[in-house]
């Protein structure tokens, strides 16, 4: 009894705490990743998910939102309204992830291309101006040619926001007088360029007075 009285409360607490630490906490009955297991006939400890199970947040009921396709073909509409906030977000993401190759103008003359990387096609070619919106989303999601996929870097909604901005970028470089809403006036005639428009690293070549007088549409 006297021995117990000599033990301080702090010492008793330490003894009780140490008694709660067991080696079982370190040696738990578990498998290391990809370890062999004699319990299963295929000897694999890593098991496939049960059929028809879906991880939280991975249901993806809206097929078009996640694939950009209607059946096996790319669709040509946005899964949500193209508001000013959507275009602003698309421009921000485009400038971060896309412009190093495609340039901020979208002509394919980005800073990486100027250092030897394979040049992507210009967004302002006739083929890509007529490409459905789902095509751009699919390329960003799965990659195409020398372009890797960006599904891990850019969220699904942000990829659609970039698609909306690409379409606005195409319109900005290929608009005509007929595209101006009624009641609005362009402050000055659009300049006429010879060849492709410039990018952030190259200046456009202005057409001569004779060329400008031919009434060509700006390129």
As an assembly, this protein is: single chain
Strand content: under 5%
Envelope shape? elongated
Report how far the terminal alpha carbons are from each other. 99 Å
Gyration radius, in Å: 30 Å
Helix percent band: 25-40%
Note poorly predicted spans.
Answer: 215-219
> What CATH architecture of the domain at 68-175 do you see?
Orthogonal Bundle
According to CATH, what is the topology of the domain at 68-175? Answer: Cytochrome Bc1 Complex, Chain D, domain 2
CATH hierarchy class name of the domain at 68-175:
Mainly Alpha
Structural class: mainly alpha
Helical segment tally? 8
Query: At the fourth CATH level, what is the homologous superfamily of the domain at 68-175?
Result: Cytochrome c-like domain
Mean pLDDT: 84
Major sheet size, sense and barrel closure: 2 strands, antiparallel
SSE string, helices as H and strands as E: HHHEEHHHHH
Strand order of the largest sheet: 1-2
Write a concise synopsis of the structure shown.
The protein is mainly alpha-helical. The protein contains eight helices and two strands. The longest helix is centred in the middle third of the chain and has 19 residues, at about 85-100.
């Amino acid at each position: 009894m006297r021995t117990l009285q000599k033990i301080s409360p702090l010492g008793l607490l330490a003894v009780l705490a140490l008694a709660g630490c067991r080696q079982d906490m370190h040696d738990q009955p578990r498998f290391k990743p990809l370890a062999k297991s004699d319990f299963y006939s295929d000897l694999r400890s890593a098991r496939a998910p049960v059929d028809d199970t879906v991880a939280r947040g991975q249901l993806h009921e809206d097929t078009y939102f996640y694939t950009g396709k209607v059946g096996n073909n790319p669709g040509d509409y946005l899964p949500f309204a193209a508001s000013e906030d959507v275009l602003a977000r698309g421009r921000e993401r485009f400038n971060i992830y896309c412009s190093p190759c495609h340039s901020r103008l979208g002509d394919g003359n980005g800073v990486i291309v100027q250092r030897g990387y394979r040049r992507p096609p210009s967004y302002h070619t006739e083929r890509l101006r007529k490409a459905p919106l789902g095509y751009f989303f699919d390329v960003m999601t799965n990659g195409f040619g020398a372009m890797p996929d960006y599904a891990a870097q850019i969220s699904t909604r942000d990829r659609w926001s970039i698609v909306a901005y690409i379409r606005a970028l195409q319109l900005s470089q290929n608009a005509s007088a007929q595209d101006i809403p009624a009641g609005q006036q362009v402050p000055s005639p659009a300049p006429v360029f010879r060849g492709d428009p410039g990018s952030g690293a190259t200046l456009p070549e202005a057409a001569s007075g004779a060329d400008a007088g031919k009434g060509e549409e700006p390129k």
